[in-house]
Amino acid sequence: MDYIKHKVPPVREDRLMACQAYGGTCGDLSTESKKGCLYASKRTFSQTQGCQLNLSLGMISSMRDAVMVIHSPIGCGGNLIQNAGINKVFQKLRQESAVGLRWINTNLSEVDVISGGEAKLRQAVLKAEREFRPSAILVFNSCVPALIGDDIDGILDDLQKQVSAKIVPIHCEGFKTKIQATAYDSVYHGLIRNLVGEDNTAKPAVIRTPEEEIEHQAKISKTVNLLNVGSMSRIDEEELVRLLKALDLNVRILPSYSHPDDFTYAHEAALNVSICATHDDYFVEHFKQMYGIPYVLRTIPIGIANTNKWLRDIASFFGIEEQTEKLIAAETAELKQAIEPFKAEFKGKTAFLTGGEVRILTTAELLHNLGFEILGLRGYHFDKYGEILLDEYLEDVPNSEKAIFNIGSGQVFEQANLLSKITPDLFVGHIGVNGSAAKQGYPIFPLFGQSDDYLGYKGVYEVATRVSRILKNASFNKNLGKNTRLPYRDSWYEQDPFTYIDDSASIAARIG
Amino acid sequence: MSKVIERPRYVCALGGAIGTIQSLPRAIPILHSSSGCGGNLAGALSGASGYNGGNYCGGQALPSSNVSERDIVFGGEGRLQEQIENTLKVMDGDLYFVVTGCMVEMIGDNVHAVTKRFKGEKLPVLAAETVSFKGNSYYGYELVLETLFRDFVEPAPVKDAGTVNLWGVVPMQDVFWKGNLGVLKSLLKKLGYETNTFFGQGETLENLKNSGKASLNIVVSDAYGIEAAKVFEEVHGVPYITVPLPIGDHGTSRFLRTVGKALGVDEIKVEKLIQEERKAYYPYLERLADVYNDLDFQRYATVVGDPNYTQAVTRFLSDDIGWLPELVVITDILGEEQKERVLASFGEYESGLRPEIVFDEDASSVVGYINRHWPQNQGQKYHKGFAPGVIIGSVMERDTAEQFKVPLLPVTYPISNRVVLNRAYVGYSGGLTLAEDVLSLVVAHR
């Protein structure tokens, strides 16, 4: 993969042929996906979703000592407002002196649309530098400047000569893609181009004696970049660091909640360890291409099976299989005993999951392992990485071919319809769609949370205890179910949930 | 040239329009915009507004045409037509309202031409071009009201002397909008009037449709809803007054006198109502006679936020509870004419207070104004600063309050560190609630 020399990364519809509209079963999806034409389907009725700009902010607005410039009319990045007074808490878990969320919106007006927004962009970047003296200024480009043709890279190149903060342009114009996850590529693209590597014009290169160099290289040979995600908690990070340290590895955590300087030496690592292919494939492929650093990308360490797979992938790279098997054996023996009581409790219960493809398939396996029967899944989108995990899931979880698989970002009308028909005992959801399921009365376990643990072996136990607690009293949601109404006609629930998915183009693509 | 803004406390016209429509009973917004617009704004409309949720149809339930690059090239009108047709089939509402984002404006889609095709059908489909680079949330609120007044409110040649309409309390931007509208409605009831607030508890679209028969429109703001009032007057011949948002005895008594005068209510009747309300109000404050004075509850205050609340809170602090709100920072984007009207609402204090009022949209500027008003100790032995102080603002003032080691009560948007349900700060009852909240902060902060 080599897109880094381009100003703008490709969208995922093109790069990964990602699908954003599908309704069927896990078994069908596994078959259909291999034909490679699902990307062409669309909806003739749709609800709003997110765009790559707001997911870009979700991924990297947590960066410490950075100021974000959102080059747009005043509404873009609006979701930041709800985090304005809160975000600092999570940053402080990484660095006591963290200052929290700072952003500037260029407030593009009608005049700017006609005469160009360049002057406002300049103003915003200079203001960020003057007011806050940050280490980095992240500039998020939006639909409007892209359409009026603002040359943001040209302006930012020029501004870089005037400011000491490192400027990172992020091309995340919402209208370019319906696959929000393109955001991850856009952000990584900007970070790789602008933060990775020493800037020898600013400070002299590090000089080491031969002995020091050997020591340095030895350290690098045992260092991994652990790629975290914005939805992950500090406790999750600690669990993964615990496991990697048990294998005698040094861990550098990127990119969420990182400091801009953390990227400078990111290429001094033996291995990139991803926990989510949706999030990281662009980054790890480029690091392999540019710096020859291999990667682990298959799965997220959620549940025993996938945590084991994740550790084994890392072990086989370092040739430490024996040590790893010992760790796995000790951890799983202890954990299996701890979760045994939950298995009886959850036996015969059913669940439905919705969220990112990687996270839902692995969390489904975790719940299956705890005794749940999985009735269905909804993925935000689906691509080759989902395909690999889906096939592993079909293998790990017997009789799962018939479970529902629906693909759509948000599109809660389909979810509401499905839930009226398959009535699970537990709904596991991504933020944004939980309220809708709550109004149908379901007990809800959030798919992720920035304050809770989900990952690694500890995560399995903690998920079990929280699910158990939530199932003990679902009165709040039951009351909502009885006393509120979702905004859909009764007739909608009588229809096929996938009525508004139009796959004619995908069929045409397959035949043609 | 408009300014760049550091941490704006509002979103775009589209966001304001969505927030306004989703606060109407059984109204369904239809977004003709890029796929991310609704998702981008959802947090601002819910989490930042005291966890308002999406009401009946908001958040990810919002129908949206989700136009993308292909539509930008070929135009999005066909997609909009399809989206409206299918929205009518799936979504259960009594009013459908198309609002637009930047991209469809830039590609030149004619939404009115599309919605016109749905005219005469069973359910109304309205449209407004809520172009986001033309204004912020408040502009979106105005546009939605103007459209409703022109295209939804039915002509009523005969007026009803006992009915008034009231707006200017902007849903979401006023985090306590629903509670506040309820209080104002019951106050006017005591004065003998039925009030349509459009968005408050128990309102119906039927009331809105018939609001043309009102005898007066009361705009409870010196900044917002005035353009809509002009449209209402032009289309339906109903005059309007503007009156500041009232909190506590002094604010609310002025409110009742202004409204009473405009409606031609007998002055004696108005004064009688004020006396009755005071008889209920002061016995509560009376409870604090000891503690307020034993512990010296008087504070300096900095008030930060929109023009509606800042003037109301300043008057309440100054004249009802005897504080010193000497500094006011107004954070909205206002024109010169608006600024003049707003400034005029900060006067005639019983206490003789003359607050310093600044207009600045940037969140980080507040620190500088506090330091200018109450210069920091430069090592002097004898020094008078912002102490004892309190900040009444939004959650964005959290860091500022920490820096000055003073308590913060978030009252203005955004509020993400409180959950808000039916709490109201307006009227006499709201004054007591505000006194409770702000004085609790003082006792708890000891």
UniProtKB/TrEMBL annotation, chain A:
GO molecular-function terms, A-Z: oxidoreductase activity
InterPro entries named in the record: Nase/OxRdtase_comp1, NifE-like
Domain of life: Bacteria
Residues of the Nitrogenase/oxidoreductase component domain: 51-471
Name of the molecule in the record: Nitrogenase
Automatic annotation (TrEMBL), chain B:
Gene3D superfamilies: Nitrogenase molybdenum iron protein domain (3.40.50.1980)
Name assigned to this protein: Nitrogenase/oxidoreductase component 1 domain-containing protein
Pfam families in the record: Oxidored_nitro
Domain Nitrogenase/oxidoreductase component: 12-440
GO molecular function (one): oxidoreductase activity
Taxonomic lineage from the root: Bacteria, Bacillati, Bacillota, Bacilli, Bacillales
Residue runs in coiled coils: none
Organism of origin: Paenibacillus rhizophilus
